[in-house]
């Protein structure tokens, strides 16, 4: 009996993966300390329990104070945070795991509570009309401040410093969070970016910041260790709406990414039903596989059967799992041995403490 595709080895541009199961980046809000630093008895233990994944992509990690929009998320811009992440990478590597960190700036998906009363930064002063998870619970977003050119350049430098800090912390690579309605995604879409300068207007201008971020990060680490995440057909969640230029913009971005020798491009299938949306693409993996020459990771709504199928059909190289990894630290072993998955508890996704974080059973590991 041939080995299921998810459990075959893969060469991630020089990083050897024992399987094609990826742990997707997921905010867990457990860094409830003054420095918002990962802890050895929380984040390090959490990720080490999941080290049998072909690749772990960490939760989004803010690159600056300005990048924050959710409570208790571990950053990657302070010395204490770097030291905390070192504990994480050390424990994961002790278990023979591989881990990238996701570099994050939420842009307008934030709240003045995180910024001493100041408005969050964004490409344009357009309220996403969404919610930000603050220390006092979910609050309505506000109309953000349109970024100056100087603030854009500083943000690019913050991404670069985040990548440099990630290398110091021992990560195997980084993922640029250019997805899910956060800052870089806000630049891409004409409904959230109405600028008239070099970062707005044309498709090329709206995508410009991403390539400047990649070029800056290349100065401090090999581009073979750089991945990025995109969500082309996101429509509705996080205040994002599509228009006639949305998919052409992502087509342009993905085609241009062929000029780089990246670790991967990480794509999400639509988060909502877009079958009646004339601007959307319903099958992201099938659409972008012919456009991109490098490694494609696909996620959103995959189970074991669908994961094996998308690889077997050649539409993706790796499959990222989110919620199943919350409640199944031994997801790879369960796939291998046919052990039923444990259900997750959504009530403990973002709360402090070990419940729903470190107490899910490991059933399939010897």
From TrEMBL:
Using the record, list the residue span of the signal peptide; answer none if the entry has no such feature.
none
Q: Is Oxidoreductase tagged as a keyword?
A: yes
Could you tell me which Pfam families the record lists for this protein? Oxidored_FMN (PF00724)
Source organism superkingdom:
Bacteria
User: What cofactor is needed?
Assistant: FMN
Q: Known InterPro entries for this protein?
A: Aldolase_TIM (IPR013785), OxRdtase_FMN_N (IPR001155), Oye-like (IPR045247)
Domain NADH:flavin oxidoreductase/NADH oxidase N-terminal, by residue range, is 15-340
Query: What are the protein's GO molecular function terms?
Result: FMN binding; oxidoreductase activity, acting on the CH-CH group of donors, NAD or NADP as acceptor
Q: Which UniProt keywords apply?
A: Oxidoreductase
User: Does this entry carry the keyword Signal?
Assistant: no
Which cellular component terms (GO) are annotated to the entry?
cytosol
Q: Which Gene3D superfamilies match?
A: Aldolase class I (3.20.20.70)
Q: Which family does it belong to?
A: Belongs to the NADH:flavin oxidoreductase/NADH oxidase family.
Quote the protein name from its UniProt record.
Flavoprotein NADH-dependent oxidoreductase
Question: Which organism is this entry from?
Answer: Zunongwangia atlantica 22II14-10F7
Tell me the lineage of the source organism.
Answer: Bacteria, Pseudomonadati, Bacteroidota, Flavobacteriia, Flavobacteriales
């Amino acid at each position: 009996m041939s080995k299921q595709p998810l459990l075959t080895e893969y060469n991630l541009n020089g990083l050897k993966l024992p399987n094609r199961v990826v742990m997707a980046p997921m905010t867990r809000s457990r860094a409830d300390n003054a420095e918002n630093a990962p802890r050895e008895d929380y984040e390090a233990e959490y990720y080490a329990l999941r080290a049998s994944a072909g690749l772990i992509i960490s939760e989004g990690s803010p690159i600056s104070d300005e990048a924050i929009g959710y409570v208790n998320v571990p950053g990657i811009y302070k010395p204490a945070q770097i030291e905390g992440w070192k504990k994480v990478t050390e424990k994961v590597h002790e278990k023979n795991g591989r881990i990238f960190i996701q570099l994050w700036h939420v842009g307008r998906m934030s709240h003045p509570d995180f910024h001493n009363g100041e408005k969050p930064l964004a490409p344009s002063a357009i309220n996403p009309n969404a919610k930000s998870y603050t220390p006092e619970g979910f609050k309505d977003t506000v109309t953000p401040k349109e970024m100056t050119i100087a603030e854009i350049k500083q943000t690019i430098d913050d991404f670069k410093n985040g990548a440099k800090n990630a290398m110091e912390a021992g990560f195997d690579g980084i993922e640029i969070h250019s997805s899910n309605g956060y800052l870089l995604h806000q630049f891409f879409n004409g409904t959230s970016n109405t600028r008239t300068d070099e970062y707005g207007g044309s498709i090329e201008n709206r995508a410009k910041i991403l390539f400047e971020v990649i070029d800056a990060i290349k100065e401090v680490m090999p581009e073979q260790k750089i991945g990025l995440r995109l969500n082309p057909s996101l429509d509705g969640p996080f205040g994002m709406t599509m228009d006639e230029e949305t998919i052409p913009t992502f087509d342009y971005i993905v085609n241009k990414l062929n000029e780089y020798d990246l670790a991967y491009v990480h794509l999400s299938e639509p988060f909502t039903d877009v079958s009646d949306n004339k601007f959307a693409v319903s099958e992201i993996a099938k659409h972008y596989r012919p456009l991109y020459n490098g490694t494609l990771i696909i996620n959103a709504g995959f189970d074991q059967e669908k994961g094996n199928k998308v690889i077997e059909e050649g539409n993706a190289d790796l499959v990222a799992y989110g919620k199943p990894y919350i409640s199944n630290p031994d997801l790879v072993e369960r796939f291998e041995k046919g052990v039923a998955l444990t259900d997750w508890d959504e009530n403990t996704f973002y709360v402090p403490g070990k419940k729903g974080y470190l107490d899910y059973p490991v059933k399939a590991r010897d």
